[in-house]
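Q: what sequence does this backbone want?
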């Protein structure tokens, strides 16, 4: 049975949905190697978002940890033993569905790939080493964390020995990395490093490689603009040198994901990665036909328009976009009302207009746009002829078209212009026409 991508993938911030391919490492004879005692763990996935035991889910060991190829994740359980997972590959869905796994062979051990079919390992042999296990259902196994009731500590590591022993990673950063683009890196001057890791005035006290912050770096003659970064250690370090740094006021968060969530939910800044989600914070109602006519909204009226519950026994409208429209009579001050008009929600940095306290009782039908609302009504939102009753010029155009068609048919039937002078008859139903006078009606029952 083939393995589904959803069952092993996670969503890497700024990258997208990916599946990690791991090998479990141990110290064996003083050498850090894939686990020789457990073939399954030499080439493996760990349960992803499609599993109830999502390894990256809240409260699970990999929460917030997104290492790069060649790095390790250490999981120390109960302070007693450690598991060390090396990242062999990071796969997108297209590769996962069609690709042949060679990284396990190239790493020195084949796990359960072709060994399940052959007495020897052949690098890249498709008989058992397709990423999605379509040939050998146990080619690449899926590991599941079952740590109920146990405490654990997890770290991204660059050193295999520290990883297998569960030692905290040595924190000696020399670079910053864009949370959303691992290829965008900057080396750190001593001033910038102290500003990031120090605990003094205007310093934010970052203590590990996963904590993240939003800042603008001066890199000599230019700045990066405000972006989301975390620290990194690599040798030799690469990228332009950052000489000074300017932080956003909200400081650090535990990882890039939490930083991105904070920005989206608590500020009007663009998110770390990707396109900002559309904001929906309405504070005015706007006339569909006259954008200068707007009314501020009480919190109770906003709740009635945007909520999905019940207000005073009436269903709330559940509007969730600025384009949806409805028809209502608004109460403004005392007994003053707007009269029934077509409205949509809006957002103004400085809302203006009188305050609307309530609308007419009931739950009007909500349409996706003002146009659709108007088209549904006998009398359109913005005036004009009622729907279904074309304006006079439209009627005249249709009648003229019919008369032209009749004349063309008549000419063809008579072989001429069809006009008989002196009261003679035409060849169409006895229709006659006097020269110089308007066209007559039908006398023979064949009129148009």
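A:
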């Amino acid at each position: 049975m083939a393995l589904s991508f959803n069952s092993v993938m996670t969503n890497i911030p700024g990258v997208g949905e990916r599946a990690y391919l791991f090998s479990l490492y141990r110290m064996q004879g003083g050498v850090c190697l894939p686990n020789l005692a457990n073939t399954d763990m030499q080439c493996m996935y760990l349960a992803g978002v499609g599993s109830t035991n999502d390894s990256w889910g809240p409260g699970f060991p990999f929460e917030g940890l997104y290492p790069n190829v060649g790095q390790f994740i250490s999981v120390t359980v109960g302070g007693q033993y450690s598991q060390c997972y090396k990242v062999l590959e990071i796969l997108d869905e297209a590769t996962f569905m069609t690709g042949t796994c060679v990284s396990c062979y190239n790493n020195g051990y084949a796990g359960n790939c072709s060994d399940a079919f052959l007495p020897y390992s052949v690098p890249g042999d498709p008989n058992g080493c397709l990423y999605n296990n379509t040939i050998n259902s146990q080619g690449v196994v899926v590991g599941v964390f079952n740590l109920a009731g146990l405490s654990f500590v997890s770290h991204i590591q660059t050193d295999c020995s520290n990883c297998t022993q569960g030692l905290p990673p040595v924190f000696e950063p020399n670079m910053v990395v864009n949370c959303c683009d691992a290829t965008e890196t900057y080396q750190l001057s001593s001033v910038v490093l102290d500003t990031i890791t120090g605990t003094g005035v205007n310093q934010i006290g970052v203590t590990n490689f996963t904590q993240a912050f939003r800042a603008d770096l001066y890199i000599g003659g230019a700045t990066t603009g405000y972006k989301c970064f975390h620290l990194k250690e690599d040798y030799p370090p690469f990228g332009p040198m950052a000489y000074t740094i300017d932080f956003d006021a909200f400081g650090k968060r535990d990882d890039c994901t939490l930083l991105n969530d904070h920005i989206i939910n608590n500020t009007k800044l663009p998110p770390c990665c990707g396109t900002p989600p559309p904001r929906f914070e309405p504070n005015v109602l706007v006339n569909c036909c006259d954008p200068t006519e707007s009314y501020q909204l009480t919190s109770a009226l906003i709740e009635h328009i945007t909520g999905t519950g019940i207000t005073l026994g009436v269903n709330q409208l559940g509007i969730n976009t600025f384009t949806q429209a409805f028809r209502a009579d608004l109460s403004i001050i005392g007994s003053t009302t707007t009269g029934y008009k077509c409205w949509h929600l809006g957002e103004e940095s400085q809302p203006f207009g009188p305050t609307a306290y309530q609308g007419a009782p009931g739950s009007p039908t909500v349409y996706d746009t003002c146009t659709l609302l108007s088209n549904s009504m006998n009398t359109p939102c913005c005036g004009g002829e009622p729907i279904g009753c074309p304006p006079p010029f439209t009627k005249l155009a249709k009648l003229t078209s019919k008369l032209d068609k009749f004349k063309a048919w008549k000419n063809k039937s008579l072989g001429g212009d069809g006009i008989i002078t002196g009261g003679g008859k035409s060849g169409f139903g006895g229709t006659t026409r006097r020269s110089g006078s308007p066209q007559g009606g039908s006398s023979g029952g064949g009129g148009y």
